[in-house]
Amino acid sequence: MTTISVADLRVSYGKRVVLDDLAIELGVGVHGLLGPNGAGKTTLMRVLATVLRPDRGEVRLLGHRTDDRVGVRQARRRLGYLPQAFGFYPRFTVREFVEYFAWLREMPAARIPLAVDRAIERVGLLDRADDRMKHLSGGMLRRAGIAQAIVNDPRVLLLDEPTAGLDPEQRVEFRTLLRELGLDAVVLVSTHLVEDVAAACARVSLVDDGRLVFAGRPEELIAAGGDGDSGDSPIERGYTAVLRGARQVSR
Amino acid sequence: MRRALWVELRRGTAPVAALAMFGAGVWVLAVHPDDWGGRWVGLADYLRVPLMVLCPLMVCAGAWQAGRERRRDIGELIAATPRPGWHSLVAAWLAVTLAGIAGLMVAYAGAAVLVARVATYDGGAWWQRASVGVLALAAASAGGVLVGRRVRLRVAAPIAGLATYVGLTILTYWNAPAARLSPADTVGSVYSLVPGWVTGLQATWLVALTVLLLAVAVRRWRVALLAGAVAIAAAVPINTAPSWYRAPADPAAVELVCTSSGPEVCLTRVNAFLLDEVAAVAQPILARLDGIPGAPRRAVDEAVRPPGDSVPEDADTVWLPLDFQATAFGDLANVDYLRWAFGQRAGGECAYSLHGEEFDQRIHQVDGIATDWLLGGSVLGAAGASAGLRELPPSAQRAWYADYLDAVGRCDLPALVRLAEQP
């Protein structure tokens, strides 16, 4: 079932077009969003998170149009979002921070305490739940950010560079969590770490210069690469091969 | 909302606001206990006067709280949530406002305990006057929230606080009807009854202003328009009404309470908590005057002095200035100042009215002798002036004083000069 539907999307900052004529359909499962710096990944995430209004195009989340005031509010109730630049209130404890966002996501008050504990537990921060945010390490902060994103059991979860700052062990745990979340929600993970995509994602989309240049399964991306392509792993070679091909076509 | 409010109360700017307002409250109360000591209305009014300092603090706190999203780069995360922006803003404003007011109230509660021990009058709608002050603090934090939301400067909070202080100072001391819009304008005195419609209009003005500021902060233009209309509707009559600085006296507040024995000393009910101490000072002096023709026979609270009386002392009564005569504990603050109410200046005033600055300084001297004698030879600056007079027999001393009163009653300057040389 499609839960994210984007058609004819165009976004520009002033005269610079960042996303152009982009269309994407995403269903339940974990999706990787890859692309070089400046390709438009974060812009796409911001549009899907309903914090950036596109110049043109239609975006539907869980069937709700995001240019409709009522629709966007309903969609946001089932949306979880971790932006690339994750800000936080340093004096809040982890529990208070997640609780505050549960309130902002209009969760029923009676459900909040249990949901908060569950979200914190899922990111492995239960033993630090009552620590202030300012006392957490970079990786822990990122996990607290993920906890606030999943506290409302979102049907659409958008994670922009979620593994930045996580150590290898935490990344492995995070991939497990992603797979678990992807069982009944559409999870879109924007990342530079193609290994994360290969390990955790059912599908992958590759954006370059504001356009979608690849959409398929990780195995298909791996298959696109050859021995002559640069990269240390099969998926990296597939990644560079697809990018090179897309750029040759655009020339 | 309760959950978010509780978190904001503990983790937002609220605890700092509470502490700052408590400190400021203690400071303003400690600086001028004579303004509120022993009087409920005085304490309520004294919540209004320091608003020139307290409101800027609340503006600062509100601005700092509202600028937090930008400082912490969390706006995008919040923008992706469904809850309308005004919910979190109101929670944040409410937390700062409640905490600030609570901090101040703790300080004032301490003062209230001291007042409650001794106060002799609890009317005067003091709680209404105090409520307007509390509403002003809420409006101030709303103003801060607007600044914090809309001004991207990191130093917006202190600048807004300073601007509020300057603005309120100008507004309060500006001799124009607009000054009445300042919450620091106390309207009446502890002896007057401020009409209910005045406090009602001021409360309406401040509530509407609060809603207007918050609505503009969250760009709720229709609500802002409505609140703006109500604010103007309240502000116009406040500005155009006849001056209420001559608010009618509160009959119950100025009702006299008098001593039951000895020479009569009467204070208003508001100041009656000082009666024993004032009587201890005034009665020995009045006793000294007993039987002297033309001498005052009683001492009365100056608050009931008839308006337009240009003669400092009439034949019968000494007026006692008690407005700033109470300590925080409800004691008499300055005995010498009270004794000085019995001081004699009539000779000098007679001479001045007849000759301007050029008159025989012995007339001042005779005033000093009379005062020193009356107050028992301990007058600051004139101590010992009556030493010669005191060496005379008691009956001669009283005769000299009677002659003095007779001479000043007639403004007989040669007679006053003679009296100065006589003892």
- Give the C-alpha Rg of chain A: 18 Å
Q: What global shape of chain B is seen?
A: elongated
What level of helicity do the residues of chain A show?
25-40%
Largest sheet descriptor of chain A: 6 strands, mixed
> Helix- and strand-based class of chain B?
mainly alpha
Write the layout of secondary structure elements.
The complex is a heterodimer of chains A (251) and B (423).
Chain A: E1 2-13, E2 16-27, E3 29-34, H1 41-48, E4 56-61, E5 64-65, H2 69-77, E6 79-82, H3 94-104, H4 112-122, H5 138-150, E7 156-160, H6 168-181, E8 186-190, H7 194-200, E9 203-208, E10 211-216, H8 218-224, H9 234-250
Helix pairs in contact in A: 3-4, 3-5, 4-5, 8-9
Chain B: H1 2-11, H2 14-31, H3 40-48, H4 51-66, H5 68-71, H6 75-79, H7 85-118, H8 126-150, H9 156-173, H10 196-217, H11 221-240, H12 251-254, E1 256-258, E2 264-268, H13 275-289, E3 298-301, E4 317-320, H14 335-339, H15 346-355, H16 362-374, H17 387-390, H18 394-410, H19 413-421
Parallel strand pairs in B: 2-3, 3-4
Antiparallel strand pairs in B: 1-2
Helix pairs in contact in B: 1-7, 2-4, 2-7, 3-8, 4-7, 4-8, 4-9, 7-8, 8-10, 10-11, 15-16, 16-19, 18-19
Describe this structure in words.
The complex is a heterodimer of chains A (251) and B (423). In chain A, 39% of the residues lie in helices and 25% in strands. Chain A is of the alpha/beta class. Chain A folds into 2 domains: 2-78 and 155-250, P-loop containing nucleotide triphosphate hydrolases (Rossmann fold, 3-Layer(aba) Sandwich), CATH 3.40.50; 85-153, no CATH class. In chain A, the strands form 2 sheets. Chain A has a 6-stranded mixed sheet, with helices on both faces. In chain A, strand 9 and strand 10 (211-216) form a beta hairpin. The longest helix of chain A is centred in the C-terminal third of the chain and has 17 residues, at 234-250. By secondary structure, chain B is mainly alpha-helical. Chain B folds into 2 domains: 2-240, no CATH class; 253-421. Chain B is 61% helix and 4% strand. Chain B has 19 helices and 4 strands. In chain B, strands 1-2-3-4 form a 4-stranded mixed sheet. In chain B, strand 2 (264-268), helix 13 and strand 3 (298-301) form a beta-alpha-beta unit. Chain B is elongated. The A-B interface holds A 46, 49-51, 72-74, 76-77, 79, 81-83, 85-93, 96, 99-101, 103-106, 109, 112, 148 and B 3-4, 7, 10-12, 68-69, 72-83, 88.
